[in-house]
Amino acid sequence: MTRRRSLYFTSLRQVEVRQETLPDPAPDEALVETICSAISPGTEMLVYRGEFPNVPADSHIESLSKVFSYPLSYGYACVGRIKEIGEQVNQEWEGRLVFSFHPHCSHFLAKPESLLSVPENVQPETAVFLPNMETAVNLVQDAAPVLGERAMVFGQGIVGLLTASLLKEFPLDALVTADRYSLRREASLDLGVKACLDPGDSDFHPSAKSLLNPDADFSIELSGSPAALNDAITLTGFNGRIVIGSWYGQKPAHLDLGGSFHRSRLKLISSQVSTITPELTGRWDKTRRFAVAWDAIRRIQPQKWITHRFSLEQAKEAYQLLDKSPAEAIQVMLTY
Questions:
Q1: pLDDT > 90: what percent of the chain?
Q2: Which residues share a beta bridge with 196?
Q3: Which of 4, 66, 97, 227 is a Cys-bridge partner for 118, taking CB atoms 3.0 to 4.6 Å apart?
Q4: What is the rounded distance in angstroms from the CA atom of residue 29 to the CA atom of residue 223?
Q5: Distance separating the N- and C-terminal Cα atoms of the chain
């Protein structure tokens, strides 16, 4: 038996750490002791603020297959070390550093096939970026950049920065980003993008059009703000594509479809990482995409965007920071 500490969202803007007892691993299970986990400021803020819809968190992941409702144990970026294995588990798993799409907790049981081995040259605080890097890879694949295109990325939170990092590796004619927070704009500019604009500025549209000369061939919306879709419609050119990676939860998107959109033949593309676009499934599967994401993590080293670390017992402070002072944070970590 193992005692563990688990984080629960208990009601609107309330979290607590509960003590629980885990049984010994079943013959086909492993016991993982968590080292660190990453808070997803987009999705987890929807849970924290009660803005989630009545759907499963992620029907493709067993530990996240429950419908959103309080109290809820949530999170999907845990890195830990296997401390104990069942008698049917290969001995090679014991002591291994692993990643898991598991809610925030100090220990958990999992079957090895649901765990991902962390490459030897990747540290735990770097490995927790795997879900967001896989998301960024998926977004870029859905956008399908073409040599010499002009791109616009709305939102430079952690997914936006990872996506911009990947796009920066392409031979694009222009890559322009936007975010309302100066800390994120500075991080984006450090990537070498052409410019990172404040969408709240009165001259945002003309400035962006001047930089894009005059429009984006494709835009990726990652701000979490439905209003940004109208900016994307305005700044994306004829027959361009708009990839929507934000999850708005219960927030409605009021789109202006009566202006330039009507004659522009724009494509609105829903992008979500749980699946692979059908155009690629003949050659791509999750294993191949994970391999690409690990390689990208090694190149980009996203741990540089960790701005805050809190112990699990300080989780309440971590979520209050993201809720009340989002301009001060990029990636917030929980340690164990």
A1: 89
A2: 177
A3: 97
A4: 38
A5: 19
3-state percent helix, strand, coil for the chain, nearest multiple of 5? 30, 30, 40
Q: Which is nearest to 44 in space by CA: 78, 72, 65?
A: 72
> For 135-270, which CATH class?
alpha beta
The predicted structure's pLDDT at residue 10: 96
The predicted structure's pLDDT at residue 95: 97
Residues of the chain with CATH 3.40.50.720: 135-270
pLDDT at 139: 98
| Regions in the chain scoring below 50 on pLDDT | 64
Q: Which amino acid belongs to residue 71?
A: P
Neighbours of 76 (CB within 10 A): 23
d(CA 51, CA 256): 23
DSSP 14: E
pLDDT value at position 74? 95
Annotate 274-291 with DSSP letters as a single string.
Answer: TS--TTTTTT--HHHHHH
- DSSP symbol at 62: G
pLDDT in tens, 38-61: 999 989 999 999 988 766 555 555
Q: Which CATH superfamily is domain 2-128+301-335 in?
A: Medium-chain alcohol dehydrogenases, catalytic domain (3.90.180.10)
Specify the pTM: 0.94
